[in-house]
Amino acid sequence: IVADAGYGSEQNYDDVLINRERIPLITYNMYRKEKTKKYKQNFFNTTNWEYDEASDSFLCPNGKKVAFQYLSKRTGKDNFTRAFKVYECEDCSDCPLRSQCTKAKEGNNRKIYYNEKWEQQKAYTKQQLSEKETGKIYGKRKIDVEPVFGFLKANLRFTRMSVRGKKKAENELGFAFMAVNLRKYTAKHANGATNPENNLTKKGSDHLSMMIGTFFRYFWLVMSQPLFIQ
């Protein structure tokens, strides 16, 4: 299942992997940033901190131990619950790097909320996207999906809904997608009709082009009007 980074979440990964039994080829918001040299060399990113599995603790840039303290759970508006392991630095007082490392108030130590399941899901996604076959499938999304939205917005000027309600919005989108499909259909047949091998005269070619142009001008006028669908 392929989607953009806006759908890269623990809940959606769970749904794709467990309920749908598919491979999620879905990036997450920090996917590209985490691959940059600047991010990997930033010592204040906890993903770059040294981790000791035996003591279940991290080592901060100032050489202090950031040890596991307790488990925490957070439930969102969608009633999906995420589990975190909370780590706390042993002592942040008088730390020369404090202003760069944490926004915690004076007297409080830096805490890390580590979502183990989420980190595993991200690692799995990175691995899938790095594979040749699955990476190729994800790459096709830019070819198959993005140009359609670009055509709708730039050529048909379809940048917002003119109706309210889910059903009405679906109907309006249906007309917009119909326009895209008709455009592909007419373009395909126009290319075939104007091919020199078909022995068409220049006059016939111009006539077909004029018909296509007239069709799109008319359709734009229709699409630019508010739709009132009962």
Give a written overview of the molecule.
The protein is an alpha+beta fold and 230 residues long. It has two domains: 2-144, no CATH class; 149-223. Helices cover 47% and strands 15% of the residues. Strand 1, helix 1 (10-19) and strand 2 form a beta-alpha-beta unit. The longest helix is centred in the last third of the chain and has 28 residues, at 166-193. The model is unreliable at 198-205 (pLDDT under 50).
Q: Over all CA atoms, what is the radius of gyration? A: 27 Å
- How far from one another are the termini? 34 Å
User: What's the arrangement of strands in the largest beta sheet?
Assistant: 3-4-5-6-7
What is the N-to-C succession of helices and strands?
EHEHHEEEEHEHHHHH
By DSSP, the count of extended strands is: 7
Q: Given the helix and strand composition, which structural class is it? A: alpha+beta
Inertia-based shape = elongated
Largest sheet properties: 5 strands, antiparallel
- Assess the beta-strand content as a share of residues: 5-15%
- How many helix segments? 9
Mean pLDDT: 85
How many structural domains are formed by the residues?
A: 2
**Percent helix:** 40-55%
Indicate the low-confidence ranges by residue numbers.
Answer: 198-205
Map the helices and strands:
Layout: E1 2-3, H1 10-19, E2 25-26, H2 31-34, H3 37-40, E3 50-52, E4 57-59, E5 65-75, E6 81-89, H4 98-101, E7 111-114, H5 116-130, H6 132-144, H7 146-154, H8 166-193, H9 202-223
Parallel strand pairs: 1-2
Antiparallel strand pairs: 3-4, 4-5, 5-6, 6-7
Helix pairs in contact: 8-9
